[in-house]
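User: Hi! I have a protein structure encoded as tokens and I'd like to know what sequence might fold into it. I'm fairly new to this, so please keep things simple.
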């Protein structure tokens, strides 16, 4: 039996063709797509514990694709895993934060508590004079105390403050807007990397505040989000 030795150029073309055919381009993009989907789903831990490992797998596969001759086919998902993935992850965090705020039910809980207090007062033996405001007085507290209580025990702090009317005093650390373009005021805490977020302020009032100014706001406690106590429906005293 006769064997014909392949030409050198022909052998190299064959190897390159085989490497190209086996380059896992589709698998790389599938891993990236699943990772991005997990980043955007508002489920705690989905993006951090599943999405990022998948993004790492896509990064490694992109390098494999480039090593097997498909430079452009590997470079695009490689750049996407480095640049696009963090952007999608932070968009997912913003979606999760918005879902947490809208689903907290803090305002509804406050309305129910205020209604129960009014019914209890109206049922008392002594009739209140006409025009008397029966709403409970807000709980006076400093920003430092509120932050310290949440840092010590989030469950106990929620039971004490969430859904209740609070009068919080402190120093303005900043005036910002969230991703929905809503203005909020950051109130300084003992932790330089965390602040209390006072939301629901009238934009014209927020525009008149300045960093370092002393402030007192009456709000409804909204719980804790990303290590920052949240105050909703705020008004400046």
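Assistant: Happy to help. Inverse folding works backwards from shape to sequence: for each of the 237 positions I chose a residue that suits the local structure. Here it is:
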């Amino acid at each position: 039996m006769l064997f014909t030795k392949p030409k050198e150029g022909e052998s190299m073309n064959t190897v390159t063709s085989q490497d190209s055919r086996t380059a896992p381009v589709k698998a790389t993009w599938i891993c990236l797509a699943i990772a991005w989907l997990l980043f955007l789903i508002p489920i705690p831990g989905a993006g951090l514990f599943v999405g990022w490992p998948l993004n790492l797998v896509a990064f490694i596969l992109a390098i494999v694709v480039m090593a097997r001759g498909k430079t452009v086919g590997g470079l695009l998902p490689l750049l996407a895993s480095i640049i696009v993935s963090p952007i999608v992850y932070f968009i997912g965090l913003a979606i999760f934060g918005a879902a947490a705020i809208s689903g907290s039910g803090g305002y509804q809980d406050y309305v129910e508590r205020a209604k129960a207090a009014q019914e209890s007062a109206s049922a008392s033996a002594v009739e209140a004079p006409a025009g008397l405001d029966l709403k409970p007085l807000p709980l006076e507290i400093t920003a430092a105390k509120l932050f310290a209580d949440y840092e010590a025990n989030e469950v106990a702090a929620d039971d004490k403050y969430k859904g209740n009317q609070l009068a919080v005093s402190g120093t303005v650390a900043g005036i910002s807007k969230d991703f929905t373009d809503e203005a909020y005021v950051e109130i300084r805490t003992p932790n330089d990397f965390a602040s209390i977020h006072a939301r629901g302020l009238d934009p014209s009032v927020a525009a008149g505040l300045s960093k370092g100014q002393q402030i007192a706001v009456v709000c409804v406690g909204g719980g804790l989000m990303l290590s920052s106590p949240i105050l909703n429906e705020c008004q400046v005293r």
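A useful reference point when you look it over: The radius of gyration is 29 Å. Feel free to ask if any position seems puzzling.
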